[in-house]
Design a protein that fits this description.
11 helices, globular, 6-stranded mixed beta sheet, single chain, alpha/beta
Amino acid sequence: MSTIEIRTDQWTKLYAFLRNHPRVYAGRESACRRFIEGVLWVARSGAQWRLLPKRYGEWNSVYKRFARWCDNGIWDDMHQHFADDPDMENMIVDSTVIRAHPCAAGALHSSGGQDAQALGRSRGGFSTKIHVNVDALGNPLRFALTAGQRHDIVKAEDLIAGYRSERVIGDKSYDSDDFREAIRRSEAEAVIPPRSNRKEQYEYDRHLYKERHLVECLINKMKHYRRVFSRFDKLAKRYLGFLSFVGALIWLR
């Protein structure tokens, strides 16, 4: 993979956002675009930072700027800026387990260790779990991370907090009394099939439940970016930076 370029219409919107962000020094437009495209090259290729082609600048400078933006929440701000007009007829929640490369191990104790960095061991091995919710059109609204072995329900209420939708759709792993109550408090309808071992079996709209494929389609799109498909980053902030950047790009399609 030699070079990657952002479309002109996408860049116009990205640069307008960056110029108006209080914690971003955009500088020369050409240099700023080169940096963003360098981050995109790493995200798509999954390559090590030190393999970044020279046309994007010195790899260490690009990495340090990317890390600084992660620490300052700029990538998340970028995602939320472009996710400003979601279709909230339905909100769909799901999660996916991502294999972590051995180089993701070894977070310092000062950073809380591997558990604090959303790394653990699931049935698939060393991994992290991405929790995501999407709108009725399958566009990403929010991301959260846990260790790979954690249950889907752990981040469910955090994903829907602050959103208003007509329905919340999820699979059986989200069949929890507490989560159903949280959905009721938000004045939405829960479209969640009950677990087979429930004493009280809930009715749900089977036709609407088919819309759940939209979140699975989003996860598939995200995994076209190799830095999302496999985790190489020791720190959760760095991995979330890639997720948020990819989320913004999906909104800009």
